[in-house]
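Quick review question:
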């Protein structure tokens, strides 16, 4: 595992891969402030779009010209009682009076919004998005000090204002439209890699491709200096040309990051060598300067890449950028080039989204820079800290945009509703804080907070016979030996020492105030597909703080990164409870032949195993569950607000009635309750088993059952298990039936229905699989009805 410390962000010019560009009006700075600004705009839009229609009309009325008779010239309704500035959300009234007169023209609000009466909800939400962009740009105009930038903001403000009045889509009026120069920067860099490095072996060429990706991402998130700043720095430059490109960059690349009603483009795709020349020298100087300042924090495997290869790459590229005869800027370059184009553009089409934690796939060594900080104070990784050269994304790590494309499982809550609710809880201030001593707080919550504050750190370390001993690592290993010896008195100290210092074993160490307070010693068996946990302990005076749970969660994520998804351990009577809480059980999923002869056997101990789910971010799992609870709570609250009518209590029971049908309860249907299809529930287990067995045999014998006989293989359906969260097949149902899992008809029917639902979710309607699912489903329900399990 490698330290995430690298080129730090924060410099106005450094725009690392995955970072958020500066918001308009932010004077070129970037980082958390800009990201927060963008997030706040998104939250406001979601909240406004979820408002009642009258509230939306009031908002749009402010930007709508008066439609009253007499050719009124009022260009926007103004309230008689304007809200305070800034408006207080807790004091805003939910009632909107369309008859309220305008402070300017005295005509009513209704006169300003008559053109919106028949407008669809989708169109109204689009206009509301433009409204918030207008308000944001208005703020930028007043805050911006640079005259050129202010002028662009004001022009965009007027454009969006006009779009609301005319109910049209914002179209930038310019003499030229993107792209502004060909070939683009992206194409030029592609050509450069092909021109200079196509003769290299595959591995070395891949290194160059990674460097090119770094460079292109830097440009996409680079904050251009204003024309006035450039005038002071380079007085003899073509300022008119730079100002034109700066204006285009603001309109097409920078502002649309925050005002999404405007079309957005990547800088490297619409600009060419002219813009690159204007920023290259400054960018190169600042990048290399910062790399040298942070060189001691870089992992060894990246130190060579960044400090040696990257400067050479930039120097060679600089020659081609400023050369008048370089062939890479010719539009006919690829026609005469051998080989295919290197698809760098596939990487920069969207900013990469970081997972909560990144682990290096490089082996653990004793060097402090490779000891593997799992918790580098939650620093944001820069472009020079991206994935190792040549490393492919693991199947367990879905691409950032895959989540948005994932089909919705039938029965889920609509995503539009989820997004509306999410918008109300995105702001951390809106989520109620959990008392760390509360029964409702997660076990690892205190530890996770300490990690974020930098109080504790996690490092995977190990001894090495091949490298020079490192004093800090050796001190930590001695500290681990002392913790294990003290907390595990039954274990011989010599045995603990031998395993902790054995090069084949590694230890995830928990460091607090520079000293070891706990750890998990383990040995990985990649060829067998499991890891043996040997020792696990936290020093006694640091227990009951969630460290043990957080340690195990980090260990799980480390192994998911290394594609080992099974833990085995022998737990004594005192440790069984802990391991059960961490997801271990006595039901071992690893075949016995895989681990017999590999792991150490202990008398009086219980063998326990844990199977990891690569889709779960374990260190953030309790946070996700907490947010899910908040979503459910908000959904319930929304449902309750929709059901305002209060019904009197039932008086029939006083009159001697013993029971009534559920559907007779006043208001029950309004809550969303629906009567369940009636059917005969077989109470005799053997009778139920035989009936279900007969039905399952009929289904398996059907001519359209062939696609569903066995679990879907990953090789036959790539990405299937990223789309289908709850797979099911007829073989699994047969095993469940044999083990008497189906204690009710509903369980059996639910699994069968899941087969058909999954098939239709993954496959297109015109596919053979989709048609088989429909036909088999129809046959299944015919058999269910014949058996009397549901009404005909």
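Suggested answer, residue by residue:
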């Amino acid at each position: 595992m490698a330290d995430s410390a690298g080129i730090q962000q924060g410099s106005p010019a450094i725009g690392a891969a995955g970072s958020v560009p500066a918001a308009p009006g932010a004077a070129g700075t970037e980082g958390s402030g800009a990201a927060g600004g963008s997030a706040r705009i998104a939250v406001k839009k979601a909240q406004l779009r979820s408002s009642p229609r009258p509230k939306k009309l009031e908002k749009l009325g402010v930007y709508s010209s008066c439609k009253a008779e007499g050719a009124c010239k009022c260009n926007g309704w103004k309230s008689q009682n304007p809200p305070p500035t800034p408006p207080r959300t807790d004091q805003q009234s939910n009632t909107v009076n369309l008859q309220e007169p305008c402070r300017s023209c005295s005509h009513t609000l209704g006169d300003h919004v008559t053109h919106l009466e028949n407008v669809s909800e989708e169109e109204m939400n689009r206009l509301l998005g433009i409204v918030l962009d207008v308000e944001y740009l208005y703020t930028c105009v007043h805050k911006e000090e640079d005259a050129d930038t202010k002028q662009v903001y004001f022009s965009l403000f007027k454009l969006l204002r006009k779009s609301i009045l005319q109910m049209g889509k914002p179209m930038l009026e310019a003499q030229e439209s993107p792209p502004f120069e060909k070939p683009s920067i992206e194409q030029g860099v592609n050509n450069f890699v092909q021109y200079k490095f196509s003769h290299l072996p595959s591995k070395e060429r891949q290194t160059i491709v990674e460097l090119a990706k770094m460079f292109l991402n830097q440009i996409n998130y680079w904050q251009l200096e204003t024309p006035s700043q450039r005038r002071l720095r380079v007085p003899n430059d073509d300022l008119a040309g730079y100002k034109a490109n700066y204006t285009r960059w603001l309109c097409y690349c920078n502002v649309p990051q925050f005002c999404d009603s405007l079309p957005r483009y990547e800088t490297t795709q619409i600009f060419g060598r002219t813009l690159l020349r204007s920023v290259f020298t400054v960018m190169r100087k600042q990048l290399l300067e910062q790399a040298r300042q942070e060189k001691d924090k870089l992992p060894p495997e990246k130190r060579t890449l960044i400090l040696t290869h990257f400067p050479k790459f930039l120097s060679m590229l600089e020659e081609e950028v400023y050369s008048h005869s370089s062939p890479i800027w010719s539009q006919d370059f690829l026609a005469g080039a051998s080989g295919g184009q290197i698809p760098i553009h596939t990487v920069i089409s969207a900013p990469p989204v970081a997972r909560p934690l990144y682990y290096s796939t490089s082996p653990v060594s004793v060097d402090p820079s490779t000891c593997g900080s799992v918790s580098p104070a939650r620093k944001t990784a820069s472009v020079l800290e991206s994935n190792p050269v040549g490393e492919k994304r693991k199947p367990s790590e879905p691409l950032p945009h895959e989540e948005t494309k994932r089909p919705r499982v039938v029965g889920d809550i609509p995503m539009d509703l989820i997004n509306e609710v999410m918008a109300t809880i995105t702001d951390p201030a809106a989520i109620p804080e959990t008392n760390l001593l509360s029964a409702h707080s997660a076990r690892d919550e205190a530890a996770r907070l300490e990690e974020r504050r930098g109080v504790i750190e996690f490092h995977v370390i190990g001894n090495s016979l091949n490298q020079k001993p490192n004093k800090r690592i050796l001190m930590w290993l001695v500290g681990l030996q002392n913790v294990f010896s003290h907390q595990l008195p039954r274990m011989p100290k010599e045995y603990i020492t031998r395993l902790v210092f054995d090069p084949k074993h590694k230890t995830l160490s928990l460091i607090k105030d520079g000293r070891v307070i706990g750890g998990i010693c383990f040995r990985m068996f990649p060829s067998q597909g499991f890891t043996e946990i040997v020792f696990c302990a936290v020093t006694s005076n640091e227990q009951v703080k969630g460290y043990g749970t957080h340690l195990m969660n980090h260990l799980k994520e480390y192994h998911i990164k290394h594609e080992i998804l099974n833990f085995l351990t022998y737990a004594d009577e005192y440790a069984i409870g802990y391991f059960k809480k961490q997801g271990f059980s006595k039901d071992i999923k690893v075949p016995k032949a895989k681990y017999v002869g590999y792991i150490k056997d202990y008398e009086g101990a219980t063998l326990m195993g844990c199977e990891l789910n690569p889709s779960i971010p374990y260190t953030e799992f309790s946070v996700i569950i907490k947010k899910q609870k908040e979503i459910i709570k908000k959904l319930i609250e929304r449902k309750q607000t929709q059901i305002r009518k209060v019904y009197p209590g039932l008086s029939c029971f006083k009159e001697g009635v013993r029971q009534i049908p559920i559907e007779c309860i006043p208001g029950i249907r309004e809550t969303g309750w629906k009567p369940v299809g009636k059917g005969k529930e077989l109470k005799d287990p053997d009778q139920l088993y035989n009936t279900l067995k007969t039905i399952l045999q009929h289904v398996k014998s059907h001519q359209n059952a062939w696609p569903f006989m066995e679990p879907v293989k990953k090789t036959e359906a790539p990405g299937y298990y990223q789309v289908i969260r709850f797979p099911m097949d007829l073989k699994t149902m047969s095993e469940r039936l044999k083990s008497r899992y189906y204690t009710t008809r509903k369980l059996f029917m639910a699994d069968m229905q899941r087969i058909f639902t999954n098939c239709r979710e993954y496959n297109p309607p015109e596919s053979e699989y989709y048609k088989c699912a429909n036909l088999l489903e129809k046959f299944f329900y015919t058999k269910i009805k014949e058996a009397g399990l549901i009404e005909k």
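Why it works: The radius of gyration is 32 Å. The chain is about 45% helix and 5% strand.
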